[in-house]
Amino acid sequence: MPPGFPELFRLGDGWEALHMLDQARLPGEECHVALRSAVDVARSIRTLQVRGAPAIGIAGALGLALELRRLARAGTAPAPEAARQAHDLLFAARPTGRNLGWGLRRVLEAFLDGYESDPGGSVDRACDAALGVWEGEVRRCRSIGEHALEVIPDAGATILLHCNAGALATGGLGTATAPLYLAHEQGRTLRAFAGETRPVLQGARLTAWELSRAGIPVTVVTDSMAGALMASGVVDLVIVGADAVAPDGTVVNKIGTYGLAVLADYHAVPFYVAAPSTTLEPRLEAMDIPVEERDDTEVRSCGDRLLVPPDASVWNPAFDRTPPHLITAILTEAGILRPPFAPRLRTLAQDTPGALPDG
Ligand code: MRU
Q: What is the mean pLDDT of the chain?
């Protein structure tokens, strides 16, 4: 996390609990929730106490290891079937982000590998794998930032961000925000605009919270102001995160990303996507990547206030798909990928052993 930030995840002694910053309460309250089982962790993912693809992947991996520890402590040496059930429960918590399946698979494989010959060591191996998933996501964020510094103008850059692809979404420096944190650390002047990101307001609540905490000037705009903002000529570049990157370079990310990409194209503003290799989807085509539809209450009301008349229906997809021709480059831990994306994404997959799901 950037210096001075509250910890996103903290493990209690002996893995008896995962203490997690409750992002659903930010920016009003900074508090941690104690999660003690896979059921707890799955609920926290569904209710957005933890969100952002890499952070969900870390939470899932730690949640599976925590569950195996819990079963072992309760006296039931966990059997492969119990591990698979906990995996499936956590995997179903949110369907779109690829990091969750990747992190869970690393932990399940570590548990199952060697189970026959050394069942007693399986839980330890699963815990080590979960810690590795956490450490890996943090490390990849920093590398993305180091490579992506190149796309940030040396002085006075104005960057438009969407949703939260920051420290809160990753446990590290963020993906989209990593170059901003590193540029700021180097003393370069920059400022950000954060799109509020209806309906859950991750941009207004979370990105604005973390950038202002880090001392980076940030201005919140509603989503409908993005066109006027770009037309005004102040935006140098847009950087967004990703929940999944299809083999052709189509990016699935927070609803509103596609609209921003169209606007950026129209106004000739470079449009970058920051994504670690753990977000790549090697098998499914763009249209086959599931897009989560969330409860209509997120759109119908804001706090206690009703916004939509009860007789009107609501459509609430959490993500959209941005086609590759609207993307200037994909910022990864291995470097900056420019079009054509398909062969470069394939190479990244091949060059990153263990970074991709194998089936
Ligand atoms: O619904 P959320 O808040 O989990 O959506 C988050 C995003 O869409 C992020 O841009 C994405 O997960 C990348 S986070 C580095």
A: 96
Q: Which two tokens stand for residue 130?
A: 């979960």
Give the DSSP letter of residue 253: E
Using CA atoms of 94, 33, 174, 216 in order, give the dihedral in degrees to the nearest 10. Answer: 130
**Ligand 1 pocket member 53 (CB < 6 A):** yes
Ligand 1 binding pocket includes 51 (Cβ within 6 Å)? yes
Residue 345's contacts (CB-CB under 8 Å, 6 or more residues apart) are 245, 247, 249, 280, 330, 337
Dihedrals phi, psi of 96, to nearest 5 degrees: -90, -50
- For ligand 1, atom 8, name the residue with the nearest CA: 254
For residue 359, name the pLDDT band (cuts at 50, 70, 90).
very low
The finding on whether 245 has its CB within 6 A of some atom of ligand 1 is no
Q: Which helix (H) or strand (E) holds 140?
A: helix 122-148
Q: Which domains occur in the chain, in start order? A: 9-142 (1.20.120.420), 150-351 (3.40.50.10470)
CA quadruple 239, 240, 246, 252: dihedral positive or negative? Answer: negative
Q: Is the pLDDT of residue 17 over 60?
A: yes
